[in-house]
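User: For my dataset I need records formatted as: sequence, then structure tokens, nothing else. Please produce one.
Assistant:
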Amino acid sequence: MTSEVIATPTWPNDAGGMTTTTDTTSTHTNVLTLRNVLLLDAVLTGANGLAYVAGATVLDTLLGPSPAVIVGLGIFMLAYAAAAAVLGTRRPVSRLAVGLIADGNIVWAIGSVLVLVFGWLEPTTAGTVWTLMQAALVAGFAALQMTALRRTA
């Protein structure tokens, strides 16, 4: 936490001298809020979903799954992102909703690894790397969301 001390001169007091007052203002803000983690998740997931839908015919060659699978995943991500964005803009943010989003992220991360372990969707090497990176990011979002929940308990 940081703070600034600002000395502000005031008008002369009755004794004929100058006095100063000190204002200590905290400039620290907690960025790990329920709202922020939901909205960040919504933005990144939405961008990823949009890329999947718009670029499915290019991504199939790069990642492995068919364009139909990639579009389906993209549509799911867009719906999820919309839900996370709506939940993140509500006042107050629902703790239950954040918990469900975090649980969904955990399921997505585990599911991504299972897709690779069992060879479902036949990803390319790039697709395998992408899936692992995405699983790690989604697990990271779940951890941030659970941390934000604990901080607000």
